[in-house]
């Protein structure tokens, strides 16, 4: 039996911009141009606002060099999913530096071989 999991990568821009709003750096201006300077819009765009509606299983993977904010936000989402009991969720820290390469290898070895044979 193969379990297909959704993988969450990325940032909750609402939390990110809220945390950096007091210390804006030049590279943050691009985020503000894209997402506006209105915290209400950040909240509406936040996936955390809607994650209680998630029903599909999630597998969270982080590597040794995963950005700390992504680690925190993945743990936040895991907590919400676990509390809502709507979708199974698992979290693993993997001793590899680049998760994408690890997932590619896993897909080629485990999933493709299972599908093909």
Keywords:
disordered N terminus; 5 helices; 2 domains; 117 residues; mainly alpha; single chain
Fold and architecture overview:
With 117 residues, the chain is mainly alpha-helical. It has two domains: 40 residues, no CATH class; 63 residues, no CATH class. The chain has five helices and two strands. A two-stranded parallel ribbon has the order 1-2. β1, α4 and β2 form a beta-alpha-beta unit.
Q: In one word, what is the shape?
A: flat
End-to-end CA span = 13 Å
Radius of gyration: 17 Å
Number of strands: 2
Q: For the largest beta sheet, what order do the strands appear in spatially?
A: 1-2
Describe the structure concisely for a colleague:
By secondary structure, the protein is mainly alpha-helical. The protein has helices at 13-20, 28-35, 39-45, 68-84, 99-116; strands at 58-63, 89-94.
List the helices and strands and how they pair.
Layout: H1 13-20, H2 28-35, H3 39-45, E1 58-63, H4 68-84, E2 89-94, H5 99-116
Parallel strand pairs: 1-2
